[in-house]
Design goal:
Blueprint (H helix, E strand, L loop, with lengths): L6 H5 L11 H24 L7 H11 L13 H31 L6 H22 L12 H15 L1 H19 L4 H7 L4 H21 L8 H22 L29 H25 L2 H4 L2 H29 L4 H14 L4 H12 L3 H17 L5 H36 L5 H12 L5 H20 L5 H11 L4 H19 L1 H29 L1
Helix pairs in contact: 2-4, 2-17, 3-4, 3-6, 4-5, 4-6, 4-15, 4-16, 4-17, 4-18, 5-11, 5-15, 5-16, 5-17, 6-7, 6-16, 6-22, 7-22, 8-21, 8-22, 9-20, 9-21, 10-14, 10-19, 10-20, 11-13, 11-15, 13-14, 13-15, 13-16, 14-15, 14-18, 15-18, 16-17, 19-20, 21-22
């Protein structure tokens, strides 16, 4: 059972957390969010990927704090640096994944008149998506003690810049390795998260990557063409949803440290080990999200003309399915991101697309549904990383809980600024990108799949068959390990050569535990992993800037 702070600690006056709207902080937030949005838009339309720019935001904020004029010295404060890095990464993922990708779906289908309705709907999806995480973060479903590896990387980067010392040297060493490896186009982030995240979950993730890479050559089976990864994810996702409902139905509250998560410091009397969101607020947050998703789906349906082409009953069913898909999509993506640092947003959206085709949703309503669904998930996961970074940076403050709550509120406000910048950037640039033929590759896949339809009767059979092992593995692993979801994630992500980085890093981590002891080894490996992730993110971003 978690221990509450002592009475004396509770009676202390909580220090005031810096505001997201202080002039210097707000100026840097807006300026760097513009940069983050540009990076995200360029990456998603040219390479089909997004970069985590939180480390970039943290580094620029740290450098600004070394300047002694215009009030920039205030940026030496690590909490202000955390606000800026939260907004920058939020702007990147919002612009790339949550806004321009959804509106590219109707464009790719030859329906440019639906771009603006889709942008309005995607904005509703983005805001609801992030509101749900704000309401449910540090609950049993999404505990702050979970791995959230990129968040650890951002926090350790900020701490190293503030304190220096041995920890900074270890972090820099990992960053150099990550930067060099990324320049050679190695998926270094996979190795970095394996040094931080849940061992069981990442073991299954590595197995999925391994099978995705070698099964076609060894057995002559095209996994994606047979819809095997999609089937595994459907089975695992349904069980994961059931496990989430089971967690919500439990009435007692307690600590929810994820297996394999790194306890940055503190003991059993650490107040940060107590969840800040109880089951009642968790249930309320998810219910609020579902209601808001229903409202967003109705808005898209009206603006996009779906309501005019369907009977009232069919339209009601479409709205409920769209809201359900958006909510489940963000939950599965968030769970995968929490445990592994990777999120299968494209794959899970594609699964709902396939389900939509199977139940006979017409092409245009399905395109709008898919766009709405794809607007959720990535920003949700990224916000989880940012809250994890803030949680680490605030753990030493006493009294802790009021400062933590205030800090999370300011992070949310800062990220809303980043989202606003992203929306403006997309609204003013989408015509340039699409007119130049720069369309996110995943949007082309969605559009092509919708237009082609499903003509192979074996698809349903394969989905059902492969849903069974996915469901069984997820059930056996339990809600804290997410083994089935992460196996499916590896099968769907299928990044070449990432499996050996994951398995190799897990092996090194286990051996180092035997040499140094569990706690010390986990702390050191987390620093190395954070450095590798940060170095890889820097290399990815530098390629965009040079380009």
């Amino acid at each position: 059972m978690a221990i509450r702070p002592s009475g004396a600690a509770q009676d202390q006056q909580a220090p005031r957390h810096p505001s997201a709207f202080e002039p210097v902080t707000l100026f840097l937030t807006v300026a760097l969010s513009v940069l983050g949005a540009i990076i995200g838009l360029n990456l998603i339309t040219t390479l089909g990927i997004s970069a985590n720019t939180s480390v970039i935001g943290a580094l620029v904020a740290m450098l600004a704090g070394r300047v002694s004029f215009a009030g920039l010295r205030k940026m030496r404060n690590i909490q202000r640096q955390n606000l800026v890095q939260s907004a920058v990464s939020g702007a990147t993922f919002a612009a790339a994944n949550s806004l321009i990708t959804p509106i590219a779906v109707p464009w790719a289908m030859g329906q440019p008149d639906l771009v603006w309705p889709m942008l309005i709907g995607a904005t509703c999806g983005l805001l609801t998506d992030t509101w749900v995480l704000y309401r449910t973060y540090d609950s049993k479903l999404f505990p702050a003690q979970g791995a959230w590896p990129p968040g650890v990387a951002a926090a350790e980067t900020i701490k190293a810049g503030d304190k220096g010392g041995k920890r900074a040297l270890i972090l820099v060493g990992g960053a150099v390795a990550g930067f060099v490896g990324s320049l050679f186009k190695l998926p270094v982030s996979a190795g970095g998260v394996a040094l931080i995240g849940n061992v069981w979950a990442l073991g299954m993730f590595g197995l999925g990557l391994f099978l995705a890479q070698y099964t076609p050559g060894w057995f002559g089976v095209n996994l994606n063409a047979e819809y095997i990864p999609a089937g595994v994810m459907i089975g695992a996702g349904l069980v994961a949803l059931g496990q989430a409902v089971w967690l919500l139905s439990r009435r007692h509250q307690g600590s929810a440290a994820a297996p394999g998560a790194v306890p940055e410091h503190g003991g059993p009397d650490d107040p940060a080990l107590e969840l800040t969101v109880n089951e009642t607020r968790l249930r309320r947050g998810l219910l609020e999200g579902f209601v808001l998703f229903i409202g967003g789906a109705v808005l898209i349906g009206v603006l996009g003309g779906v309501i005019a082409d369907m009977s009232p009953l069919a339209f009601a069913g479409w709205v409920l399915f769209a809201a359900f898909a958006a909510l489940v999509h963000e939950l599965i993506v968030g769970l995968a991101a929490m445990h592994s640092g990777w999120f299968p947003a494209f794959a899970v959206t594609l699964i709902f697309l396939v389900i939509g085709l199977l139940i006979g949703i017409p092409a245009i309503p399905l395109a709008l549904l898919v766009g709405f669904c794809s607007s959720t998930g990535p920003a949700f996961a990224d916000m989880g990383y940012d809250y994890k970074a803030g949680w680490i940076l605030r753990r030493e403050v006493r009294p802790w809980k009021p400062f933590e709550i205030a800090g999370r509120q300011q992070q949310y406000a800062s990220q809303l600024v980043g989202f606003a910048v992203a929306l403006v950037a997309v609204a003013f640039t989408w015509q340039y990108f699409f007119g130049a033929g720069l369309i996110p590759p995943v949007a082309k896949v969605y559009a092509t799949t919708i237009q082609a339809g499903l003509t192979n009767p074996d698809i349903i059979r394969n989905l059902i068959i492969w849903a069974v092992p996915g469901a069984l593995i997820q059930f056996v692993g339990g809600p804290k390990r997410q083994m089935g979801v992460l196996l499916a994630t590896g099968l769907l992500v299928a990044t070449v050569n990432a499996w050996w980085l994951v398995i190799g890093a897990l092996g090194i981590r286990l051996v180092w535990r035997q040499i140094r002891g569990t706690d010390r080894a986990d702390e050191e490996m987390a620093l190395v992993g954070a450095g590798v992730i940060a170095g890889g993110a820097l290399a990815d971003t530098s390629r965009v800037i040079r380009g």
